[in-house]
Amino acid sequence: MQNKKDILWGGATASSQYEGGYDLDDKGLDTQDCRPYLKRTSDATTATRLLTQEVIEEAKKCQGIGNYPFRKGSDGYHHIDEDIALLKELGIDIYRFSISWARLYPQGDELEPNKKGIAFYDRIFKEVHKAGMKIFLTMNHYAVPLYLVENYGGWTNRKLVTFYERFARTVFEYWGQYIDYFLPFNEINAGYFSPYNGVGLVKEKDKPYNQSLVFQSLHHQFIASAKTIKIARKLSPKSQSGCMVACFCYYPLTSSPEDNLKAVRDEEINQWFAVDILANGHYPSYMDRFFRENDIHLKMEDGDETLLKEYACDFVSFSYYSSSIATVQEDGQQTAGNLVVSTKNPYLKASEWGWQIDPIGLRIMLNKMYDRTQKPIFISENGLGARDQLNSDFSIHDPYRIDYLKQHFKQIEEAIDDGVDVIGYIMWGVIDIVSAGSCEMAKRYGVIYVDGDNLGNGTYKRYKKDSFKWYHDYIQAQHQQF
Ligand code: BG6
């Protein structure tokens, strides 16, 4: 008999990409508010790699929204009620959103939270709950208060663990009763690929990132994760704690042993190390060699290892958009992907942004992750970033998105039949938001269209795309089967 299962279907946004209102409620400036819109190059992730102190100084001089799309987001700040009503109408079971650290703690190191920030999120938690949706909270989705970056060196400094703990305690004291699932950090392995986004590390001009600082910062985030889980188990005992990585399904380019070994190593260093630490509770042995060969010396405190073991997460989660190619050859044709570039795969089509579309890769990763952790899996992000056309009758026809979703949902079904314990699926950017990689509005994931452009022009009115009805009907049909 076929294994089938009713899972939670959801949609997600992230505060820095959705909210806007960057200077309202006494919110402090954060790292995402300082990322300028840059005309796209072939490497969609260039924007995050160029973040030097000079870029930040320029950003601080700009008083308004200017060329900084995250400051406006999708103007969620002024559309919260309407958006929650639309999500309710869509019929999703669970809404994933994040909290802006700098709205709750504008500098990051204050002893007390900002009351206006509390009031802002209080309304969101209560309204989402009232609308009958479960809550999947990302406590920190990339944005770090700029003050912590400039005055403490971001996550390189262990003091951030203390500041983060304070932030976490506030979140669970106020809203622990509403939280069903939570992630201390979005895509924790981003600290490795995109250190500015992931751990608030500013790039020194013309120099590569210092890998010791990158991994020290990540260690601090691992400890902060464990401490958050400890707090949540006390203040929000019904909530489930998770970890999340950006998932890269690596295929070797050729059948050569060298390419195969490269695929294994790339997966280990790019994603498994974080899963092994947070879900399995310890630093895996393959990291010893990596640290040795890269001259990385981690500073750990007494008790760190016990903490990681005792507060391993309850479920694992990942974002999945495309697969990648691993090879030792250096002359392959490159294409963009989520946070990383990859060699082109001749068997796959790519989105306009170069991300290679591979639904079977999702099934492979679900199987691999489950085998590795034996923990329930939440697909916390997936979707198609595409250019949509708003027609004069306010319709938006997006058959490409429906096709993408259909193909990926089929592979989730297959994975469940393979025996993988999938608990939920969350569509990324269910309401159009600013792209995290390329800082533009033109790359849209939503089933809800937001009428704004890359430079913040537009009405910011919301319109339903064709995929809205399709996703709604799909969810209803799924639940009716059980
Ligand atoms: C994930 C991030 O890496 O990919 C999201 O968690 C991001 O914040 C998503 O938006 C899609 O990437 P992009 O660059 O298309 O926005």
From TrEMBL:
Q: Which UniProt keywords apply?
A: Glycosidase, Hydrolase
Q: Which PROSITE patterns match?
A: GLYCOSYL_HYDROL_F1_1 (PS00572)
Among the entry's GO cellular component annotations, what is one?
cytosol
Q: Which domain of life is it from?
A: Bacteria
SUPFAM superfamilies xrefs: (Trans)glycosidases (SSF51445)
GO terms under biological process: carbohydrate catabolic process
Query: Under the GO molecular function aspect, what terms does this record hold?
Result: beta-glucosidase activity
Active site (UniProt): 381 (nucleophile)
Pfam families per the UniProt record, alphabetical: Glyco_hydro_1
Regarding protein family, the annotation reads: Belongs to the glycosyl hydrolase 1 family.
Name of the molecule in the record: Beta-glucosidase
Organism phylogeny: Bacteria, Bacillati, Bacillota, Erysipelotrichia, Erysipelotrichales
